[in-house]
Each structure stands twice: as structure tokens, then as C-alpha cells.
Design goal:
Blueprint lengths: L4 H24 L21 E5 H7 L2 E2 L6 E5 L2 E8 L11 E3 L4 E3 L6 E3 L4 E3 L8 E7 L2 E5 L1
Antiparallel strand pairs: 1-10, 2-3, 3-4, 4-9, 5-6, 6-7, 7-8, 9-10
């Protein structure tokens, strides 16, 4: 077979396009839905609220922490009829912050950084607030959209 430069380049181009076809088809296919019953709140699809716990449990403990420790919920200090939800992972070292009801703040056990109920930095080595999530009370349940 006698190939000149133009034919050789066109064959390489055709081979390159053919190699992209499978990945293009995968990108256009519909994703398989997650049917796991242990889906975490932090992995919830946007627009979907997930139950974290009962309001009675929140009132008894003073705070709620999701099973996967990715969402913490407390009563809003400015309006006790509402709740505030944050990601309790400290933005400095990644430790899980703890709610201190007496001071109405989250405190990092690793380096004593302090955050307000809404996640704003109150003190410590970090300068980045905790991520905040939409939260509400409905039918005796605390729901969070994260």
C-alpha cells in the first residue's frame, strides 16, 4: 500500500475521531439514579430537603448532627422558631466543630476556632465561615437542603 503524507494524516485524524466516539456517547447518556437508602444529606440533589431528625430531639439535645457528620443543626438564636444548618467541618484543619449551647457558638476541638450558629467566624486561626444550608421545620421534622 502506497500512502502519501495527506492520506496518512487523514487516517490519523479519522482514528482520533473514532477514539473520541465512546467517551462522547457516555457523556450524552442518562445517568443511573442513586437508589441508595443511606444517601447523605450533603449528597442530596438540589431542591430536595432531607430529614435530619425530630424537632423534639433537637430541643432535647440542643443540636442535631447528621449520621454522616456533614450537617449540624441548631435553633436560630435570633428567632427560636427557626433552625440554622451548617457544615460542621472546621475550615482550618477539618475537625468536626461542637455546638456549645451556653455561648451559642460552635467551637473547634482541635484549635479552639469559634463560629456563630450561622457559621460566621467569631475567632481563632480560621478566616473562612462554615458553609450554610437552607433548613426548615415541617411536621415535627428538621429538614435540610444541602
Amino acid at each position: 500500500m502506497n500512502l502519501n503524507r495527506r492520506k496518512l494524516i487523514s487516517w490519523f485524524g479519522l482514528g482520533w475521531l473514532a477514539s473520541l466516539l465512546p467517551s462522547s456517547l457516555v457523556g450524552c447518556s442518562e445517568a443511573t439514579p442513586n437508589t441508595s437508602t443511606t444517601e447523605s444529606v450533603a449528597a442530596a440533589p438540589s431542591g430536595g430537603f432531607k430529614a435530619i431528625g425530630a424537632v423534639a430531639q433537637l430541643d432535647q439535645n440542643g443540636s442535631l448532627l447528621s449520621a454522616d457528620k456533614k450537617v449540624a443543626v441548631v435553633r436560630d438564636p435570633q428567632d427560636p422558631t427557626k433552625v440554622v444548618a451548617v457544615n460542621p467541618t472546621c475550615t482550618h484543619n477539618g475537625c468536626t466543630v461542637e455546638w456549645k449551647a451556653a455561648n451559642k457558638e460552635y467551637v473547634c476541638p482541635c484549635h479552639n476556632a469559634k463560629f456563630s450558629a450561622s457559621g460566621a467566624v467569631k475567632g481563632g486561626p480560621t478566616s473562612t465561615s462554615l458553609p450554610k444550608y437552607a433548613a426548615k421545620i415541617e411536621k415535627g421534622q428538621v429538614l435540610v437542603n444541602s
